[in-house]
Amino acid sequence: MYFNIVNEGDCVLIKMLSKTFTAEVAREYESFMQKYLKQKIIVDLSQCEYVGSGSIGTILNSWHQSGKRLALIVTNDELKKILAVTNLLQAMKAQLFERKEDAIKYLQKMNK
């Protein structure tokens, strides 16, 4: 299991436990996301050091499917650079945070 799921108020926190977000991890991510797409979602990538190109597409797809009620927690500067090069940061700029509390605050302002 690559993820841990925790309820944070009216948000669901999906914390990635793996340091790499590969195709295998993306398959598990997609199965989790199908369960939670109707909720406000925080994907915590703070322990992640690498995201493969296919996984970036998976994240962007889940962001769209969730009605843009998805926030990412990214603390690794190298990972931020990878996300910037692939334009994921540009697409999700307002939904990228370094702290869980900021992501929760942002999502709680959104309508259900």
Can you offer a commentary on this structure?
With 112 residues, this protein is an alpha/beta fold. It has a single domain (3-108), classed as Transcription Regulator spoIIAA (2-Layer Sandwich). The chain is 44% helix and 24% strand. It has five helices and seven strands. The protein has helices at residues 23-36, 53-65, 77-85, 88-91, 100-108, and strands at residues 3-8, 11-16, 20-21, 40-44, 50-51, 70-73, 96-97. The strands form two sheets. A five-stranded mixed sheet has the order 1-2-4-6-7, with helices on both faces. The protein has a two-stranded parallel sheet with strand order 3-5. Strand 1 and strand 2 form a beta hairpin. Helix 1 runs parallel beside helix 2 (53-65). The protein is globular, with a radius of gyration of 12 Å. The protein starts with a strand and ends with a helix. 30% of the residues are buried.
Structural class: alpha/beta
- Principal-axes geometry comes out as globular
The low-confidence runs, each spanning 5 or more residues with pLDDT under 50, are none
Number of strand segments: 7
How far is the first residue's CA from the last residue's CA?
29 Å
Give the radius of gyration: 12 Å
Average pLDDT over all residues: 89
- The side-by-side strand order for the widest beta sheet comes to 1-2-4-6-7
Helicity level, as a percent range?
A: 40-55%
Order of helix and strand elements from N to C terminus: EEEHEEHEHHEH
- Tally of DSSP helical segments: 5
